[in-house]
């Protein structure tokens, strides 16, 4: 007897397909049921970590950005790691946490969205994509408790409603929509503070990219885990834009220019402040 | 106890083949053709949502003729196979050849073991990188697999289409030329005018990176075919 609409059928989800057919490839395997010892936990703590990521809305859509550094304890494990990934034509995902599981989740999420689109002949709604990611983060909870934390920010352009959206997540898979801006990771707090002062609704594209970079540069100045723009090696933060036409990368030359402008401005302020101090000191003498 | 009737294996296979052929002959046809910048897939399909042509992977597409429910299942299985393989290894390790082999096994086993054979004919198409030959595999209802060059046709009028294209097809056609030739072939085989809204057309574009599959809208088709007369 054939079963109609079998609830155990994997349907159009690649994540479910993987879980059923290749459980060895699912990132969310629990390491040990009984938990892990202190030494083992320390071992996991030393795994490379990706740090600051942020997103903010602007006139045409959403900016999503991340620095390029991964740290391993007190060491820098990579200066050129990517934390912002294309999810599909109209959405992107940025990930903070332990680098290995983070990159794996981003890759799996991308396949998930394309897989659905191919099977169903149309892509998931933005709400559907955000919800699916929430389930994937939730499935990671056992690993997160053992120290392998993965915290994403998901942004997308809702073509049906004509607006950009930002979703943030917590460890348990909780999904919250953010209406203006958000940052997370080790330098997330500094980036949020910077954006809090600079953010204006309906900013132009250039201004929005500037605010995102200000946030990342502030985070890099205060947080040891976050890498700033590196003019010597030519490494700059990743910035992507999600607009009606789709997702596109901001060219490195443009990011370099914007970073240079911010750094120059800060240097000028310092110089002026220094000059002011000197004249004051002379007056006192 | 009544003895079951003895049917010779030859007779049984013949009956199954005839049954499958009849089923496929009722359906409409599909043409796949190589052109200068990629592969063109053209299906006669009055439905705008029940597709006969589909994307499988970055550079691989699928076309199915015959019974919809059956080739739809094969299409889904193909996408699952390709995505699993690409996730476990690398994106360039997913090839039309291995997919066509997997299809051949599945369809062949069903033909020899199941009561009812699959009433389908499918094409697995891969557009190659610059300078390499494209791949085009044709799979019949019994799992037999053929490697085609230049063009291939499946479905009800497959034979007529093949005869027509054999003389008219030439290498290095552009997209417009290939699409017009395919439409003329369909018109010749069915001896009726083919309307753009009854065509489902997609291309695999050689020059693109990542996903190369793209559907042509009815407006685009109209614009290309209107110039033909």
Compact description:
Chain A has 285 residues and is of the alpha+beta class. Chain A has helices spanning 14-21, 38-45, 99-120, 126-139, 141-145, 188-198, 205-222, 252-284, and strands at 49-50, 53-58, 61-66, 70-72, 75-78, 84-88, 91-98, 150-158, 163-169, 175-178, 181-184, 238-243, 246-249.
Structure description:
The complex is a heterodimer of chains A (285) and B (229). Chain A has helices at residues 14-21, 38-45, 99-120, 126-139, 141-145, 188-198, 205-222, 252-284; strands spanning 49-50, 53-58, 61-66, 70-72, 75-78, 84-88, 91-98, 150-158, 163-169, 175-178, 181-184, 238-243, 246-249. With 285 residues, chain A is α+β, with helices and mostly antiparallel strands. Chain A has one domain: 4-Layer Sandwich (Glutamine Phosphoribosylpyrophosphate, subunit 1, domain 1). In chain A, the strands form 2 sheets. In chain A, strands 1, 4, 5, 6, 7, 8, 9 and 10 form an 8-stranded antiparallel beta sheet that branches. A 5-stranded antiparallel beta sheet of chain A has the order 11-2-3-12-13, covered by helices on one side. In chain A, a hairpin with a 2-residue loop joins strand 12 and strand 13. Chain A is globular, with a radius of gyration of 21 Å. The N and C termini of chain A lie far apart (100 Å). Chain B has a single domain, classed as Glutamine Phosphoribosylpyrophosphate, subunit 1, domain 1 (4-Layer Sandwich). In chain B, 40% of the residues lie in helices and 24% in strands. Chain B contains 6 helices and 10 strands. Chain B has helices spanning 9-25, 68-88, 96-113, 158-168, 175-190, 218-226; strands spanning 30-35, 38-44, 53-57, 60-66, 120-126, 135-139, 145-147, 151-154, 199-205, 213-216. A 5-stranded antiparallel beta sheet of chain B has the order 8-1-2-9-10. A 5-stranded antiparallel beta sheet of chain B has the order 3-4-5-6-7. The N and C termini of chain B lie far apart (70 Å). Classes of the chains: A alpha+beta (285), B alpha+beta (229). At the A-B interface, helix 1 and helix 3 of A face strand 3 and helix 2 of B.
């Amino acid at each position: 007897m054939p079963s109609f609409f079998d609830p155990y059928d994997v349907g159009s989800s690649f994540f479910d397909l993987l879980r059923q057919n290749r459980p060895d490839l699912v990132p969310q395997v629990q390491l040990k049921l009984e938990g892990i010892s202190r030494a083992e936990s320390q071992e996991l703590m030393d795994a490379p970590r990706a740090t600051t990521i942020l997103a903010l809305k602007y006139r045409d859509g959403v900016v999503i950005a991340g620095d390029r550094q991964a740290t391993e304890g007190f060491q820098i494990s990579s200066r050129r790691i990517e934390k912002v990934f294309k999810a599909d034509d109209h959405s992107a995902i940025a990930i903070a946490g332990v680098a290995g599981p983070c990159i794996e989740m981003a890759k799996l999420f991308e396949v998930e969205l394309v897989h659905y689109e191919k099977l169903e002949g149309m892509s998931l709604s933005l709400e559907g994509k955000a919800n699916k990611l929430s389930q994937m983060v939730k499935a990671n909870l056992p690993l997160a408790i053992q120290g392998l934390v993965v915290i994403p920010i998901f942004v997308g352009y809702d073509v049906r409603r004509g607006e950009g959206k930002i979703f943030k997540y917590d460890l348990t898979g909780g999904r919250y929509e953010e209406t203006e801006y958000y940052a997370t990771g080790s330098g997330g707090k500094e980036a949020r503070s910077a954006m809090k002062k600079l953010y204006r609704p309906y900013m132009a594209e250039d201004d929005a990219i500037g605010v995102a970079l200000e946030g990342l540069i502030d985070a890099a100045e205060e947080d040891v885990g976050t890498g700033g723009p590196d003019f010597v090696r030519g490494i700059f933060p990743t910035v992507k834009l999600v607009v009606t036409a789709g997702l596109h990368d901001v060219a490195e030359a443009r990011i370099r220019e914007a970073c240079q402008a911010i750094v120059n401005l800060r240097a000028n302020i310092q110089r002026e402040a220094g000059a002011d101090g000197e004249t004051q000191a002379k007056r006192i003498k | 106890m009544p003895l079951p009737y003895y049917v010779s294996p030859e007779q049984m296979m013949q009956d199954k083949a005839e049954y499958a052929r009849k089923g496929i002959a009722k359906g409409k046809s599909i043409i796949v053709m190589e052109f200068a910048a990629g592969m063109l897939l053209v299906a006669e399909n009055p439905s705008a949502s029940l597709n006969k042509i589909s994307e499988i992977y970055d550079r691989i597409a699928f076309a199915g003729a015959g019974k919809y429910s059956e080739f739809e299942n094969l299409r889904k299985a193909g996408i699952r196979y390709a995505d699993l393989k690409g996730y476990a290894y690398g994106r360039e390790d997913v090839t039309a050849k291995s997919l066509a082999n997997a299809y051949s096994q599945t369809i062949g086993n069903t033909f020899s073991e199941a009561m009812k054979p699959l009433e389908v004919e499918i094409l697995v198409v891969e557009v190659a990188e610059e300078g390499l030959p494209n791949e085009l595999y044709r799979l019949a209802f019994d799992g037999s697999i053929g490697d085609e060059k230049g063009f291939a046709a499946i479905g009800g009028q497959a034979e007529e289409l093949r005869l027509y294209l054999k003389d008219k097809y030439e290498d290095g056609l552009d997209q417009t030329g290939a699409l017009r030739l395919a439409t003329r072939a369909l018109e010749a085989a069915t001896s009726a005018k083919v309307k753009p809204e009854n065509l489902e057309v997609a291309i695999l574009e050689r020059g693109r990176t990542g996903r190369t599959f793209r559907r042509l809208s009815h407006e685009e088709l109209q614009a290309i075919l209107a110039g033909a007369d």
